[in-house]
Amino acid sequence: MNVLLVYPEFPDTFWSFKHALKFIRKTASTQPLGLLTVAAMLPHEWGKRLVDVNVVRLTDDDLAWADYVFIGGMTVQRRSAQQIIARCKDAGLPVVAGGPLFTIEPEQFDAVDHLVLNEAELTLPLFLADLESGQAKHVYSTSEFADIEQTPAPLWELADIDRYASMSIQYSRGCPYDCDFCNVTALLGHRPRVKTAQQIIAELDSLYDAGWREGVFFVDDNFIGNKRHLKQELLPALVEWRKGKQPLPFNTEASINLADDAELMEMMVEAGFDSVFVGIETPAEEGLAECSKKQNLARDLVADVKRMQRAGLQVQGGFIVGFDSDTPSIFQRQIDFIQSSGIVTAMVGLL
Questions:
Q1: For the whole model, what pTM was predicted?
Q2: What are residue 111's phi and psi, to 5 degrees?
Q3: In the CATH scheme, what is the homologous superfamily, with its name and number, of domain 2-140?
Q4: Ordered DSSP codes for 197-215
Q5: At the top level of CATH, which class does the domain 170-350 belong to?
Q6: Cβ contacts of 228 within 8 Å, gap of 6 or more
Q7: Pairwise CA distance, residues 297 & 310, whole Å
Q8: pLDDT of 305-343, one tens digit each?
Q9: How far apart are CA 86 and CA 95, in angstroms?
């Protein structure tokens, strides 16, 4: 069995960094972590090939080689995914789809043969068992959440890692907050689930052994969701792992209350983290209340950013315009906040 794992193209937006990447001679910002993890869950004896169309073209030779096509992605990749699926069906190939895009919008993809939804650790084994017995169903889904301590390390060897600006690792899933504009909790739940420190070290070892010496992005939606495990397990392990190695810079995403924990910030910096993405969203309390961003309310957000910067963390900020309560003054207020806080990378999106 030959399985072709295809990752759709990101559209030409600020978030794709498509044009900025040319300055550092890279083709894409980060590798398709989900598909590489799914690849590690497939039978060892199956042939596996990754085509990330952000990096290389999907060729007729790829399709001729494959027995099945596995595709996964996010909602922003919808158009490319639809085009890829249509091409695969024209080639007579069965398509298996999963990940956030297909879990959120399964009804939009009638051409897909098998929808393996939610977390693959739970639904993929069911599909594989049915496929082996010749009884594969159209949809596999679950309301349960996976124990990610059982999640295998991604098959990094399938990716041409030199084409990427950074490599991604996932330490946790889930977020304790409930922001209205975010689908993370709908997909992954409110209780942060974490991998063991040993899992993360093994993934870093495999990347380091493959020759990777650049940045590593911990893609958790809220890295500090389980502070106890961070302080007692992961961060000390990362400090130890870095000894005697060429240092790899780490970055991640966290909620604004990271600024309240000086010890945690100090430990993160010691472990190699030099930047953190924080969802500021808006300086307007009306907008924060409107979207249930309770963790940002009644705070001096500029002072919070400054505390993280003084601790040694560059703060990248996420901002939103378009709340119902926004007035025309919000544009200048956003500009003033960004400039006064010293945020050097401000990602502003329309709601």
A1: 0.95
A2: -75, -15
A3: Cobalamin-binding domain (3.40.50.280)
A4: HHHHHHHHHHHHHTT--S-
A5: alpha beta
A6: none
A7: 22
A8: 999 999 999 999 999 999 999 999 999 999 999 999 999
A9: 10
